[in-house]
Specification:
mainly beta, Pnp Oxidase, Chain A, 7-stranded antiparallel sheet, 14% helix
């Protein structure tokens, strides 16, 4: 699969939920489930969260993060390492709003309550559940820290 022509959106199409790992100011890693926006925009992955959540503080402190997508049917896993950014822009929130997020945010894309998290993938690995083989279908040069 190193020459696999699939794009990140194609690799992630079967998944709805990811585990997002961030590092807090205390140095501890934290993982939590996140519902991904189903329509991927370019190579960007989008999530909605509470504006004042720990994950927002974590990403503002250290934007490096990881996502894990797991398919229980066959054990295939896709991991994404990249840079996360917290965005509090109502126009963008309205444009990117995924109806599935209404479960947690019934008032919709209200920037007083909701923030977007954008993850820019730098390394994507696919772990085949049947063979245990790991393939790297996408790798980008690491981005420089800072905004």
């Amino acid at each position: 699969m190193p020459d696999d022509p699939r794009t990140i959106p194609e690799l992630l199409a079967p998944f709805r939920t990811a585990l997002l790992a961030t590092r807090g100011e205390d140095g501890h890693l934290r993982c939590r489930p996140m519902a991904m926006r189903q329509t991927v925009r370019g190579e960007e992955l989008w999530f909605a969260t509470a504006r004042d959540s720990t994950k927002c503080r974590d990403l503002e402190h250290d934007p490096r993060c990881a996502l894990v997508f797991f398919a229980p049917e066959d054990g295939t896993t896709v991991t994404v390492s990249g840079t996360g950014e917290v965005i509090r822009d109502r126009k963008l929130m309205t444009e990117l709003w995924d109806p599935s997020w209404s479960r947690w945010f019934p008032d919709g894309p209200d920037p007083r309550q909701v923030a977007l998290i954008r993850v820019i993938p730098e390394l994507v690995e696919r772990h085949d559940g049947a063979t245990g083989r790991t393939d790297v279908p996408f790798s980008a040069p690491p981005r420089k820290r800072g905004r």
